[in-house]
Amino acid sequence: MDTFAARGYNNASLAEIAERVGLTQAGVLHYFRSKALLLTSVLELRDQSDIQQLGPDRPQGLAFLRHLVDTAIRNAEREGIVRLYAVLSAESVTDDHPAQDYFRDRYDGLRGFVADALREACGLPDDGSEKVGHAANAVIAVMDGLQVQWLLAPGAVDMAASTDLVVNALLRTLAPDRFGADG
Amino acid sequence: MDTFAARGYNNASLAEIAERVGLTQAGVLHYFRSKALLLTSVLELRDQSDIQQLGPDRPQGLAFLRHLVDTAIRNAEREGIVRLYAVLSAESVTDDHPAQDYFRDRYDGLRGFVADALREACGLPDDGSEKVGHAANAVIAVMDGLQVQWLLAPGAVDMAASTDLVVNALLRTLAPDRFGADG
């Protein structure tokens, strides 16, 4: 995880990873077969620790949106994981990247979760309105974009405050009667 | 530009770049001295074409915010440039990346521009209120984050619609009397 976060996937060296865990490169490849499979395994391991938050038992509606803000608070204490995701998610759009499907699927799932949560929080039907989808994509995007800014200038960026501001502003836009015009 | 966008900086090969422009590697290095300086030159060249939009004569207030939405519309027609920035900005947080200062400075400048534009659009004084800063960081973040999602799944993401939604929602939050609670 640390090596992929510090160097990205393409620039990570199996020799460095092997040395950090006290194995030979052949030893690492005995367990993971290839650098690409090692990357996939690292991402899957990370996901297991978040599975309660994003699995079928995840909080619903407003509680899920508050959970996203809590995640931004927690992320400010775990720079390594933030860097891992920021670097790899963007690097995944390069040609033939082994984590491209992983991130495409991850975003597909997240977009659906956030759209569901917005609809439930706002009491809106799932009527195919595009506005909720645009808002859901924006919530995920703001969290991702803040991470890169924060990694480069931690003192200039409050990830939780900006996320909270956007979530509340979008809730007021989607359901002004429920979330009021001020506050 | 195409090679850095397709592979990222770390994984880009000078041999490939030289071949694409019909030079030897020594020929490329005659002009740019190193791969790092070539990258910096590519980014500076890109900036020159946007200089009117982000220089001292840039549009002010609401017009600047509308310009950001227009940029998102235009970006949907120029996948290569979007990929270049998405990949390199995130890769810049890896250890010893040659574009780290470039992106740190770029975001510093952008945060100031967007905060100024929000204050002017909302008729707010520059009184050190943190809310405008949080909103400015969020506007930049949402544009960046949408790019990665869009590159992975263009049909699922409307960058301009999501950006417009967030900008309007934040304007209503910062100045509800001026921008109204509905619309």
From TrEMBL, chains A, B:
Keywords: DNA-binding, Repressor, Transcription, Transcription regulation. Residues 1-50 form the HTH tetR-type domain. InterPro entries: BetI_C, Homeodomain-like_sf, HTH-type_TetR-like_transc_reg, HTH_TetR, Tet_transcr_reg_TetR-rel_C_sf. Residues 13-32 bind DNA. This is TetR/AcrR family transcriptional regulator. It comes from the Bacteria. Coiled coil: none annotated. PROSITE patterns: HTH_TETR_2.
